[in-house]
Specification:
With 305 residues, the protein is an all-alpha fold. It is 78% helix and 0% strand.
Length: 305
């Protein structure tokens, strides 16, 4: 299966949401409550289940975790720095920059899990679960910060009530303590997670206004370049510096080139920022992933670890 085939379902769901919202009676008044359902219940459930379902070998994957965290911090720094660049900063809308910074470093965990399984089987799933577990809290905090700083609500308050952060921290604690979901409820939780992907992507499509991307073209190019070009290059450098194994390097490079998280749109919209602009970036990132994923793995072939 090619990367285009793997990414097609996500892109198709975004397109379906866009068409339904624009050309049927299921307009924005219908989709706004759906966004709340995804943000406050469905996607936190998916995050919790993804992290808790398998024990994490924290010691054996320490170098991989370090690489993921360092690469993530570098991407966050690049995204935060865009409005402060002398030439570029004057061309960026401050509100849009705050809302779209998250696009540069957050990732689609569903696609990551599917790719890891296809590339390295059970070992790949465990390794990418480690990356998800350590990076999701940092990325969600970094996503909330620029928007909370520019709003009337406090940063700590936004973090404390952010359902994605609460779900991730709770799942990590349960994983460390060896707490697992009862077998009876696992199928239900798994289905809730699957629903979150479909509805989250369709909500992004329903809120999308592609015309806004043309007005913010410099910002769009900048955040997508960090996500799909700079991040894989940083991952390759870290794989060498930390002497990762071939399998770990493959998972790290794959992780670094994933499309951005579909919930970027939901987070921006729920915090009162330009959700339609971010929804357009989510769509473009999904398309860019078709090229960036092969690019990332090609880097390993050119410069094997």
């Amino acid at each position: 299966m090619t990367y285009a085939q793997l990414l097609f379902p996500d892109f198709a769901l975004i397109l379906i949401g866009y068409l339904i919202c624009r050309f049927t009676a299921l307009n924005r008044s219908i989709w706004q409550p759906v966004e709340g359902l995804v943000y406050y219940f469905l996607f936190p459930t998916l995050l919790f289940y993804s992290i808790i379902r398998a024990p994490i070998d924290w010691l054996g994957a320490s170098n991989l975790m370090a690489a993921g965290l360092l690469g993530g911090l570098a991407s966050i720094a690049l995204a935060y720095g865009l409005p402060h660049l002398p030439w570029l900063g004057r061309r960026l809308d401050a509100q849009d920059a705050a809302a779209s910074a998250q696009v540069a470093f957050r990732f689609n965990s569903f696609i990551g899990l599917a790719l890891a399984d296809r590339l390295a089987g059970a070992q790949g799933l465990q390794l990418i679960s480690v990356l998800i577990g350590v990076c999701v809290p940092m990325f969600n905090i970094a996503a909330v910060y620029p928007m909370a700083r520019g709003s009337q609500t406090g940063f700590v308050r936004e973090l404390a009530r952010n359902p994605l952060i609460v779900a991730t921290v709770a799942a990590l604690a349960c994983n460390l303590l060896g707490i697992r979901l009862p077998a009876l409820v696992e199928p239900t939780v798994a289905r809730i997670g699957q629903a979150s992907i479909a509805l989250g992507l369709m909500s992004a499509g329903a809120g999308m206004q592609l015309g806004l991307l043309a007005r913010g073209k410099w910002l769009s190019v900048s955040v997508l370049s960090i996500r799909h070009v700079a991040s894989p290059l940083l991952a390759l450098l870290l794989a060498h510096l930390l002497r990762l194994s071939a399998v770990q390097a493959t998972i790290l490079l794959t992780f670094s080139a994933l499309p951005t998280a579909s919930t970027c749109y939901v987070l921006a919209a729920r915090m009162g920022f330009n959700g339609p602009f971010v929804a357009g970036l989510v769509t473009l990132s999904t398309l860019a992933g078709i090229a960036s994923l092969p690019f990332a793995l090609m880097l390993l072939q050119w410069w094997p670890v």
